């Protein structure tokens, strides 16, 4: 049994320092969990922490998918000698789309999400009914490895609905969670008073100055153990902004000070992984925003890579930060030999990651028109969620009444990016929140907007936003009606009729295009780093699996492709290019290029 007081934790009555590392099962291919988890153990950690992303498990109301993954991950962690901390949300932030909340739900409940609203709570309760049995049966009190379970996530940054937090805590207990619950917030007074519960220990999240953070926690929660639930040893990236890194020596010094202060710790991240598919979230700066920090728009989508400058990089290889953290943890173990009693007799060795395929080129020799779905007509443009679409593309088409002279077009509520055509001619690229040159059109013309979602905001008051054309299209001040929509879904690789392109892919770059080629791999497969030189922006699939988005603005210029996705022989590489380019090749590079 795990217990706690102001001095720390005890497991079966003996002092325990929780040394944890964050690794999200949904950001790493299951075939590579063993290597990553073994590497955490070899670093000197005794615990792994994971969020649960609700939106991957319930992509539509009552339709549950991939429910076995959390249990499998916890079991693999146990095999690697690691305890586990589970953070089931329902909200997780995590730079993950919509903070993990399903888009279909937040579109329905709006600002009632993350409150004690009955409709929202009914959806949470139904999901927890399906999720929590896998956690309950793996608690340490029942012979498993789950040490603790979190209530919500950083709620003090968002709200102060104590009844909501109490409902979640009571629901976890009622469903059989007996290990300690906890909350997690920034070390600010208003966050710790708004996001905590009586009788539930509070933990704090920070990247530096542990003495100050623990001091605030101690002043407000004197009976709680010092625990940094998120030690931010790196940071995430946005498209169009520089790649973030943190000095390894500085991060190691902060870790040493956390331990010297008597704290338990969870490295966020220990291994970051990848935002595969369309799962990356986004951030939005509250106005007034600093244009030097946020380029031309307050909306900043997160990159496909979630490397995070973590101790284990995106492919699971150790970094300089890993080696320094390992030294800090080894010194701590030498100074606290009583902690060794909780570890098994195995001598942990750092397992190598998969090999990397050598540099090569894949010619893209086939092309196809993207297969948009059948058109439907609406009096006003529907948002993505009304079309049953989480992410993807929607083409909105309008006819401007006439006769009338040329007047300016205004796009209201664009989320998040669009290409504008007038009478079949590409005339403008539009970005959410960014200024653009005015476009004027005359009566009688056809106007089309190809709208792409780039990730729902995962933190702040815009969590739960809808996607698509959320306002409308105006000609001068007059709204245009009779909108025709065509949907292109991206969950799986679009099935299209490809044709050979003699001499490579050609075209005028007027519209989106699918291009395809084959990567030949020998019997010895490996990881790969794929780049799209000449591509502007789009999506890349390997054998039907969507790796994620690419964007020539960077900072990221390579995709990480895990070894389990590749097979000996021919592997299909498919791109959906949305810019005015026609990529003719994909390159394999021998190392990641993150900026």
Indicate the low-confidence ranges by residue numbers. Answer: 503-507
3D shape: globular
Please report the first level of CATH classification, the CATH class of the largest domain: Alpha Beta
Number of strands: 32
How many domain units?
Answer: 3
In whole angstroms, how far apart are the ends?
46 Å
Class of secondary structure makeup: alpha+beta
What is the architecture of the largest domain at the second tier of CATH?
A: Alpha-Beta Barrel
Most strands sheet: 9 strands, antiparallel
Q: Provide the β-strand percentage band.
A: 25-35%
**Helix content bin:** 10-25%
- CATH-defined superfamily of the largest domain: Glycosidases
Note down, in words, how this protein is organized.
This protein is α+β, with helices and mostly antiparallel strands and 595 residues long. It folds into three domains: 2-282 and 306-342, Alpha-Beta Barrel (TIM Barrel), CATH 3.20.20.80; 360-368 and 494-589, Galactose-binding domain-like (Jelly Rolls); 376-489, Jelly Rolls. Helix content is 19%, strand content 29%. It contains ten helices and 32 strands. The strands form six sheets. Strands 14, 25, 26, 27, 28, 29, 30, 31 and 32 form a nine-stranded antiparallel sheet that branches. Strands 4-5-6-7-8-9-10-11 form an eight-stranded parallel β-barrel, surrounded by four helices. Helix 5 runs parallel beside helix 6 (162-174) and helix 9 (248-260) packs parallel to helix 10. The longest helix is centred in the first third of the chain and has 19 residues, at 118-136. The radius of gyration is 25 Å and the shape is globular.
């Amino acid at each position: 049994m795990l217990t706690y007081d102001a001095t720390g934790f005890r497991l079966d009555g003996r002092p325990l320092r929780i040394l944890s590392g964050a690794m999200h099962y949904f950001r790493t291919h299951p075939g590579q969990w063993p290597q990553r988890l073994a590497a955490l153990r070899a670093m000197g950690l005794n615990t792994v922490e994971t969020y649960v992303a609700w939106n991957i498990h319930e992509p539509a109301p009552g339709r549950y998918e991939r429910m076995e993954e959390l249990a499998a991950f916890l079991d693999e962690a146990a095999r690697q000698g690691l305890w586990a901390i589970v953070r089931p949300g329902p909200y997780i932030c995590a730079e993950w789309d919509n903070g993990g909340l399903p888009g279909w739900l937040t579109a329905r409940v709006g600002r009632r999400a993350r409150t004690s609203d009955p409709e929202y709570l009914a959806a949470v309760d139904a999901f927890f009914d399906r999720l929590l049995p896998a956690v309950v049966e793996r608690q340490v009190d029942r012979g498993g490895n789950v040490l603790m379970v979190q209530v919500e996530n950083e709620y003090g940054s968002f709200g102060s609905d104590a009844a909501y937090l109490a409902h979640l805590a009571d629901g976890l207990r009622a469903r059989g969670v007996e290990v300690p619950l906890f909350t997690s917030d920034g070390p600010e007074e208003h966050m710790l008073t708004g996001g905590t519960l009586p009788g539930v220990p509070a933990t704090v999240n920070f990247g530096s100055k542990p003495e100050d953070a623990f001091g605030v926690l101690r002043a407000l929660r004197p009976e709680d153990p010092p625990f940094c639930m998120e030690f931010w040893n790196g940071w995430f990236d946005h498209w169009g902004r520089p790649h973030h890194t943190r000095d390894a020596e500085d991060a190691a010094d902060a870790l040493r000070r956390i331990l010297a202060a008597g704290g338990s710790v969870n490295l966020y991240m220990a291994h970051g992984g990848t935002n595969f598919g369309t799962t990356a979230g986004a951030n939005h700066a509250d106005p007034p925003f600093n244009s030097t920090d946020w380029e031309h728009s307050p909306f900043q989508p997160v990159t496909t890579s979630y490397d995070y400058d973590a101790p284990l990089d995106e492919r699971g290889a150790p970094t300089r930060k890993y080696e320094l953290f390992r030294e800090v943890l080894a010194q701590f173990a030498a100074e606290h030999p009583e902690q060794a009693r909780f570890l098994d007799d195995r001598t942990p060795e750092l397992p190598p990651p998969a090999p990397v395929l050598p540099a090569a080129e894949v010619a893209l020799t086939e092309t196809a028109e993207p297969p948009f779905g059948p058109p439907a007509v609406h009096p006003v443009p529907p948002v993505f969620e009304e079309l049953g679409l989480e992410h993807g593309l929607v083409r909105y088409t309008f006819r401007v009444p006439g006769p009338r002279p040329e007047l300016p077009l205004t796009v209201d509520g664009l989320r998040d990016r669009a290409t504008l055509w007038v009478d079949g001619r590409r005339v403008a690229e539009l970005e959410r929140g960014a200024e653009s040159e005015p476009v004027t059109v005359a009566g009688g013309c056809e106007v089309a907007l190809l709208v792409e979602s780039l990730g729902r905001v995962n933190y702040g008051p815009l969590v739960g936003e809808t996607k698509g054309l959320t306002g409308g299209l105006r000609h001068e001040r007059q709204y245009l009606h009779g909108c025709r929509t065509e949907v292109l879904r991206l969950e799986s690789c679009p099935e299209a009729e490809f044709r050979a392109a003699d001499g490579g892919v050609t075209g005028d770059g007027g519209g989106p295009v699918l291009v395809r080629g084959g990567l030949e791999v020998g019997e010895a497969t490996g990881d790969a780093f794929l780049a799209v030189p000449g591509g502007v922006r789009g999506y890349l699939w390997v054998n039907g699996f969507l790796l994620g988005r690419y964007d020539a603005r960077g900072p990221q210029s390579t995709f990480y492709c895990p070894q389990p996705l590749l097979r000996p022989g021919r592997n299909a590489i498919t791109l959906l290019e949305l810019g005015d380019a026609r990529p003719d090749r994909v390159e394999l590079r021998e190392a990641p290029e993150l900026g």
